TrEMBL record:
A GO molecular function held by the record: carbohydrate binding
SUPFAM superfamilies (UniProt xref): (Trans)glycosidases
Gene3D superfamilies: 2.70.98.10, Aldolase class I
Domain Glycosyl-hydrolase 97 catalytic, residue spans: 285-435
Cofactor(s) needed by this chain: Ca(2+)
Subunit structure: Monomer.
Phylogenetic classification of the source organism: Bacteria, Pseudomonadati, Bacteroidota, Bacteroidia, Marinilabiliales
Organism of origin: Sunxiuqinia elliptica
Domain Glycosyl-hydrolase 97 C-terminal oligomerisation per the UniProt entry, residue ranges: 532-629
Domain named Glycosyl-hydrolase 97 N-terminal: residues: 24-260
Signal peptide span: 1-18
Name of the protein in its database record: Alpha-glucosidase
Record's keyword terms, sorted: Calcium, Signal
Length: 634
């Protein structure tokens, strides 16, 4: 017979009377209260004077099962405060400061099997995971369900990721009916926001978030049973905490919950910009050249990249034949592509090449054999699409791809419903980005400006996103075979997305000729740094707009996006060094720009600014703005 340990809702007064184990954040503002009520574990989260989560169940359904009632046989505490430099990320230096506690549990009856639950309390969130100590009465087992709850004290408003579709929300907890993708963001008060996700997904299936079957509560929804054995632990269940939605975006919590980098020499891992052939097929250049899937087109991309500080060319699907045909061999090129000539030409120009691959070709011709061939040609990275497995198998296949790519010095961009970003780019920094969002024009339809804003506040909590930005030639691009529908937006907003959306590789979706036509606007793009030191969300909300400021050395880069509503933004520059003068280069919507009717109108201007300055920027409906700020005397 199988048993499940599960905790029903109880009053907080009862929880306090039971045996409690309290864990404070380093600044004392966040508290986790852990208890065993009649042998069943639960947790409560207190933030300042608010209690957003109360008496939430902790538990797993295993086969063979735990007896269901536990005693605490030991506890272990730890305090950590360290600062490390990450290979690349939103911030160069990351402080990892938390207080930790592990509860070692033993069944009160049965075979006295043991379980450990690890907790961490940070200033900006909490996390917990399950561990399975080595023991004689438990060796191998199956995790069938994760019964961990997020039991809230009110019917809060929430938003969530939604695969390759527009994000969900705002909705109330009790209106939820079906499992949804993580991350989830909840507005608990005007000064308290929570983000739910998971970190360090390495061995077991990831989860979605589903209604828990009682008021005001969600529960983890494990995406399939997972084989396990003692000595292992689950991924971290994470609750980010902030006063504003932007605090969640700024968080480094997921990185801190992952192990340190496992790649000894990371010098070959180089973030940057890439040209992309896929959406440009069928574009006719002013000189009459028609782009297609051929080496002649790729050389034009490479020439432009070499002249404009763009690091890579991404050769997408079908370069080795129809991508879903088992006859298509990714160790050789097909059609009008001379792959060895492409690499020879790119190397001479100082441009890297990223190659597409999916499970069909990898499984038929051998993943490692294919990746070794990519390495031998001189490829810089892989865009991996359409992973066919699910649940635990998909997680393990993802890990295999990442580790083999690291072995052959290849970066990775996962597309087509990958497992979520989860801070694993700290451990494996060759994972540069994922399409864990509604990426523009993917899935054969377009997203609108409100989706870009919400993705920055929701999807990007998980990690770097491939939004496929950089559209400059909006008019007439629907004739291209890989541009399936009308694309809304403004060219100024496209620049802004390259700042707002954190990504190790920013994919430029348009033709070289369209960028040349707007060279003054593209000046912002070619001057973007490859690596940043700091990331700040200055202002915004999921339902309205976002403004981000990023620093590289003494230079700052600002990006603002709005929904369908026009806005006048007042941006204080108090983050600049006092007493220093700066040049600000602004790339903005024009007075008559509109994301449907006048997408390509823009303006540029220049100002002198300092820490006392406030920039006033008008963004058009569905538009945006970007700003580059440089010290005058340096």
């Amino acid at each position: 017979m199988r048993f499940v340990f599960f905790v029903g809702l109880a009053m907080l007064s009862f929880l306090v009377q039971a045996k409690d184990y309290n864990l404070l954040s380093p600044d004392g503002h966040v508290k986790i209260l852990i208890s065993l009520n009649e042998g069943k574990p639960a947790y409560t989260v207190v933030v300042g004077d608010k209690t957003p989560i109360q008496n939430a169940a902790l538990g797993l359904k295993l086969n063979p099962a735990y007896h269901g009632v536990f005693n605490v046989v030991n506890t272990q505490k730890q305090e950590v405060d360290e600062t490390y430099e990450i290979t690349w990320w939103k911030n160069r230096l990351i402080r990892n400061q938390y207080n930790g506690m592990t509860l070692f549990l033993e069944e009160a009856g049965g075979n006295r099997k043991r379980l450990a639950i690890e907790f961490r309390s940070y200033n900006d969130g909490i996390a917990f995971r399950y561990a399975f100590p080595e023991q004689k009465n438990l060796k191998e087992f199956v995790i069938e369900e994760d019964l961990s709850e997020f039991a809230f004290t009110d019917d809060y408003t929430w938003w969530s990721a939604n695969g390759e579709r527009d994000n969900l929300g705002p909705l109330s907890i009790n209106a939820a009916k079906d499992p949804v993708f993580a991350p989830m963001v909840l507005e608990c008060a005007n000064d308290l926001y929570l983000g739910i996700h998971e970190a360090a997904i390495y061995d077991f299936a990831n989860f979605k978030i589903k209604p828990a079957g009682k008021a005001n509560a969600f529960q983890c929804d494990l995406q399939g049973p997972s084989n396990a054995k003692t000595g292992m632990h689950t991924s971290w269940r994470v609750i980010m905490i902030g006063q504003q939605p932007g605090d969640l975006v700024e968080s480094n919590l997921l990185q801190n919950l992952n192990p340190p980098c496992k790649i000894e020499d990371t010098s070959w891992i180089k973030p940057g910009l890439t040209m992309w052939d896929w959406r440009v097929w069928g574009f006719t250049a002013p000189d009459g050249f028609v782009y297609g899937l051929n080496t002649a087109s790729h050389k034009r991309f490479i020439d432009f990249a070499a002249e404009n500080n763009v690091d890579y060319l991404l050769m997408d699907a079908d370069w080795y034949g129809p991508e879903f045909s088992e006859k298509s061999d990714p160790t050789q090129s097909a059609g009008e592509i001379d792959i060895e000539e492409n690499f020879r030409y790119a190397k001479a120009k100082g441009v890297g090449i990223i190659l597409y691959l999916n499970d069909v070709g990898a499984n038929k011709f051998g993943l490692e054999r294919v990746l070794k061939q990519f390495h031998d040609w001189g490829a810089s990275g892989v865009k991996y699409g359409f992973m066919t497995s699910t649940g635990q198998a998909k997680v393990l296949q993802t890990r295999r791809v990442v580790e083999l790519c690291a072995k052959y010095k290849l970066t990775v961009n996962f597309h087509d419903n990958p497992i979520p970003p989860n801070g694993d780019d700290r451990t494996w920094p060759n994972v540069l980005t994922r399409e864990y969002c509604h990426s523009q024009a993917d899935a054969k339809y377009s997203y609108y400006p409100e989706t870009a804003v919400s993705a920055a506040f929701i999807n990007m909590l998980a990690g770097p996103l491939d939004m496929c930005s950089g559209w400059y030639g909006f008019e007439g691009n629907e004739v291209r075979p890989k541009v399936f529908r009308f694309i809304p937006g403004t060219v100024a907003a496209e620049n802004a997305k390259l700042v707002v959306f954190h990504s190790g590789i920013s994919v430029l979706a348009d033709s070289p000729e369209n960028y040349k036509e707007k060279a003054d606007l593209f000046d912002f793009v070619i001057n973007l740094p490859k690596r940043y030191d700091e990331y700040k969300v200055i202002d915004g909300h999921m339902e309205s707009h976002i403004t981000v400021a990023r620093r590289a050395g003494e230079h700052w880069y600002l990006g603002s996006l709005t929904t369908r509503e026009p806005r006048t933004l007042s941006l204080k520059l108090d983050f600049l060094n006092p007493g220093e003068k700066y040049k600000a280069f602004l790339f903005e919507d024009a007075s008559d720009t509109h994301f449907i009717t006048n997408r390509e109108a823009y303006q540029t201007r220049f100002l002198e600014v300092d820490t006392e300055s406030t920039l006033t920027i008008k963004v058009a409906p569905g538009g945006g703005a970007s700003v580059r700020i440089e010290p005058i005397n340096k």
